[in-house]
Amino acid sequence: MPTQANNSEAIVYLNGRLLPASQARLAIFDAGVVMGATVTEMTRTFGRQPFRLQEHLDRLFRSLRYVRFALGESKEDLARISHEVAAHNAALLPEWGELGLIQFVTAGEVSAYAGFAPTADRPAAGCTVCVHTFPLGWHLWAEKMRRGAHLVTPSVRHVPPQCVDPKIKYRSRMHYYLAEQEAKLVDPAASALLLDLDGNVTETSAANFLFVERGTIVSPTTRNTLPGVSRAVVIELAAQLGIGFVERDSQTYHVINADEAFLTSTPYCLMPVTRINGIPIGDGKPGPIFRRLLDAWSQLVGVDIERQILEGASEKRPPTGK
């Protein structure tokens, strides 16, 4: 149980214990630090309740199986812990606040860096398991929600699926970091849209990328991209709205000539993209299919998502429903 004597501090679950966030520590020789050997998930709350938590945990456990991390916690354990951490920490938020809820698992301590070799008396440590939260930063997305994001295709390429399968969500992300630095040399407000080795568009460091061509949503293939939970929501909503959805390889040429484009990601759900490499997409404004999808998503969760971001960025209380 938490050692918090003070219920005004956020808590963190770390390796079997609930701790005040100020007391949570990761060893410097943890594999997540030494090798970036970490798989992770992020869920967000609506009305202080995690959205699509089960889908995120399902993907986490598929990733864990693929990378061969053995946990002591079950999926049900992590769901219960996640709800407990979120409920405690959400109570500390201002009225307009919502949480990002993170689960991450590393391969545990690297014995050679820790200064000992595993023996029968001192076996190798198990996985590091952590659940924590952070307040969603509305100010980070407000201006892009109004005007649209600018994406830049850097020289840094996406990691080929022959190296790491993109269906796992992992934190070994130096290529994303380098790509972001390069994009910001073009525009400090831009994000990087990575190409694969064949020049096909893939994804950004934090979002799936989609564009619209003659009324149909076009997605990069999941051979090269993470099958995002938010992307899956778009597929569901598009079907309900009678909007076509296809997966195919596409190049920057297709994006430049698209009718509109947008990103989909857990924290902000949908974000319009209005420029690529400095060139306007469509009329350079958030498009009608983006608007229809965002309205449908807002109805799904009972929160006006755009208003929540815009008013939350101004520290106004966003509406609780539509």
Mean pLDDT: 92
Approximately how much helix is present in the residues? 25-40%
> What does the radius of gyration come to?
20 Å
SS field, number of helical segments: 10
Short description:
The protein is an alpha+beta fold and 322 residues long. The protein contains ten helices and 14 strands.
Topology of this protein?
Elements: E1 11-14, E2 17-20, H1 31-34, E3 38-46, E4 49-50, H2 53-67, H3 75-90, E5 99-106, H4 111-114, E6 128-135, H5 142-147, E7 149-152, H6 174-186, E8 191-192, E9 208-213, E10 216-219, H7 229-241, E11 244-247, H8 252-256, E12 260-265, E13 269-276, E14 279-280, H9 288-301, H10 305-313
Parallel strand pairs: 7-8, 7-13, 10-11
Antiparallel strand pairs: 1-2, 1-6, 3-4, 3-5, 5-6, 9-10, 9-12, 12-13, 13-14
Helix pairs in contact: 7-9
Which characteristics define this entry?
about 20% strand, 14 strands, about 325 residues, eight-stranded mixed beta sheet, six-stranded antiparallel beta sheet, alpha+beta, disordered N terminus, single chain
Descriptive report:
This protein is an alpha+beta fold. The protein contains ten helices and 14 strands. It has helices spanning 31-34, 53-67, 75-90, 111-114, 142-147, 174-186, 229-241, 252-256, 288-301, 305-313; strands at 11-14, 17-20, 38-46, 49-50, 99-106, 128-135, 149-152, 191-192, 208-213, 216-219, 244-247, 260-265, 269-276, 279-280. The strands form two sheets. Strands 7, 8, 9, 10, 11, 12, 13 and 14 form an eight-stranded mixed β-sheet that branches. Strands 2-1-6-5-3-4 form a six-stranded antiparallel β-sheet. A hairpin with a 2-residue loop joins strand 1 (11-14) and strand 2 (17-20). Helix 7 (229-241) crosses helix 9 (288-301). The longest helix is centred in the first third of the chain and has 16 residues, at 75-90. It is globular and about 55 Å long. The protein starts with 10 loop residues before the first strand and ends in a 9-residue tail after the last helix. The relative contact order is 0.13.
